[in-house]
Amino acid sequence: MAAFLRLELIRLVRTPTYLIYLIIFPVVMYLMFVHVLNVGGPNPGQARSFYMISMATYGAIGMALFSASRIALERQIGWTRTLAVTPLAPRTYVISKLLAGTIAVPAAVVLVLASGVLLGGVRLTLAQWVLIVALLWLGSIPFAALGVGIGYVTKVESSQGLTVGLYFTLAILGGLWYPVELFPAAVRTIAEYSPAYFAGDLGWRVVADQAPRLSSIGALAAWALIFGVFAVWRYGRAAR
Questions:
Q1: Total domains in the fold of the chain
Q2: Residue 2 pLDDT > 90, yes or no?
Q3: By CB neighbour count within 10 A (0-12 exposed, 13-18 middle, 19+ buried), where does 144 fall?
Q4: Positive or negative CA dihedral for 39, 217, 67, 233?
Q5: What angle do CA 240, 221, 12 make, to 5 degrees?
Q6: Among 102, 176, 181, 217, which residue carries the largest CB count within 10 Å?
Q7: Which of 18-27, 70-79, 127-136, 215-224 has the lowest mean pLDDT?
Q8: 183-210, pLDDT tens digit by residue?
């Protein structure tokens, strides 16, 4: 497993365009919300903290989710069938992909947090900054599992489009672009069960000087289990 994970990390580092896009785009979105659109009304400080966490979560989700395109390409070139004849168990493969998919998440999160400090005037304690990075890294795991599953459902031509569509849908529904409190009641009920909302909630509560909800952590664990089982099942079928 260690050798396979090392290979995955080397391949990730060798795709700088992919990394730059997923790391820089949330920062651009943050600057657009707090400086161009000037969100926040009478309480801009609170809004800047909220959108800092939202865009950090957005970056974490994107970094984890976009492994789908690479996996779809692997299927096309026959790499999946090659792995099938090795002793590598399906669950070991999926775990390696999960780890590789989340390894760069802290970089995306930290860059948005730095933008919040330097360009948004957000001030928190060192413990809060560290806790936010750790929690958003944890919150990215379900999306890494979902990315693996998508990679084994789609072809190269459709993988990127589906992933981008899911990325935007999850972010919007999860309240990362627009607070769920302002959603219509029926939509809000659905939104508050979405994995992106639970991931964002971990960080939103930290900047509000509140403890993370155990229910959010439990819900993310449940989503990770669901997506993980789906990924293992799809990998097993693709390797036949």
A1: 1
A2: no
A3: buried
A4: negative
A5: 55
A6: 176
A7: 70-79
A8: 998 899 999 999 999 999 999 999 999 9
- Give the global pTM: 0.86
Q: Tell me the helix, strand and coil percentages in the chain, rounded to 5.
A: 80, 0, 20
DSSP secondary structure letter of residue 37:
S
User: Residue 108's CB: how many other CB atoms inside 10 A?
Assistant: 29
Exposed e or buried b per residue across 183-218, where buried means at least 16 C-beta atoms within 10 angstroms of its C-beta? beeeeeeebbebbbbbbbbbbbbbbeeeebeeebbe
- In degrees and rounded to multiples of 5, residue 147 shows phi and psi of -60, -40
The tokens for 32 are 């657009």
The tokens 């970056």 sit on which residue?
59
Greatest Cα pair distance, the chain, in angstroms, is 62
What is the residue range of 220's domain? 2-238
> Which has more pLDDT, 86 or 52?
52
Say what the pLDDT of residue 33 is: 84
DSSP for 196-228, please give it. HHHHHHHHHHHHTT-PPPHHHHHHHHHHHHHHH
How confident is the prediction for the chain on average, in pLDDT? 82
